[in-house]
User: Fold this.
Amino acid sequence: MTTDIVALGVAGLAHALDAGETTSAAATDTYLNRINAQNETLNAYITVMADDARRDAEVSDNRRAEGKALSPLDGIPIALKDNIDVAGVPTTGGIEAYRRSVPEHDADVVRRLRDAGAVILGKLNMHEAAHGATTANEAYGYCQNPHQPGYTPGGSSGGSGAALAAGLCAGALGTDTLGSVRIPASFCGVAGLKATYGLVSTRGVMPLSYALDHVGPMARSCEDLTLMLSAMAGFDADDPAGRHGPTDFSAAQNTSPSLDGVTLGYFSDLNKINGDTVDPAVSVAYAKSIDRLRELGATLEPAVWDGYDPAVVRPKALLLIEADLANIHADALDSNPEGFTEAFRAGIDYGLAQSAPKVAKAIRLIEQVRPVARRLFATVDALVTPTTPVPAFSFEAAMPKTITTFTAFANYAGCPALSIPMGKTEDGLPLGLQIVTPKREEATALRIGSVFESGPTG
Assistant:
């Protein structure tokens, strides 16, 4: 039963609950038992909410017995990155200084999940302040990649990716500023989605960069992501970044198993785009994925980022992030500087040293990516790229500076971007394929991803 429940994921478990084949209480206990057995080694969870989860699962089962299930997510065990507020539970942001910081209210996205009946298992490990892509967390411990101990699960939502890959939750939430949902999805062999900027509220989420932050679902399949996103999305009038957009993505799953009529852009020279050596395993898997998309009926066209150079924009985005962080954590830094690592404080110092004209120039440069995206999507329905230029790497290795080359574009442009598995290296490390679509076209990305998942493996 344990293996079966884990293999079901979100959608499969929802069907099993509907059919009376299992209960939320049984599923929740399965995940809690797995957390108890594996978390000491993986270090994916910072806080486990076992009592609350069991109580909410029992309430969900009672609703379902009365024929009053709230949604397909009712009774589904989900875990949250620890920069997302849950009332009465510490939100650490992976920062030592916030170990005892307890919010009074749920984040808007948590409220929406609760309204849908989801069971919250706990809070997940992450890179300090979401300011990095390895989840080598000095305060709460390094989070391990389930596929290879001693290797990064990615970040900053590393705990989310690791927990999913290890079967410690059915679905998870992460946050994504330059790729922090999609990078761990790629490194851990799961699916992750960053929606259109503002479609999912960030109110009640510890910010990294106000102009680039997103909250995104992570799960085992595009069908799972579709169910989660349908519960999470919705206009929040109290979120300054809030945008109106779609809230029902079921059309992504009710389509032909063919990509006939879909035009996809791809990069014919990854090294030219990345400005650095792309791992050969990534290049091979990407080429096979392009061939597979053709076999599934898509038309593939060479694409260019006309007017956009990732190497030029990247340092400006980091400048903006660190300027924001200097304001976000100013009080905590003043009162408890030792609650932050030396590397993080150095980044804040850099942000503080930047002049207002330099910050304004950085914002303007990032905004110029939006017309690049508009030109691109005037000719293709979606852009497909590798998610990352490399597979997961050892904690002893330096993080490639180009780790966000393919992911950050969607954050700058505010577009949806999906990462799904596209194979593994010879050593068994997962690799990710990214699908980027125009704003508010999440259903298109999920549809393409779903067809790719179910198509021939040739």
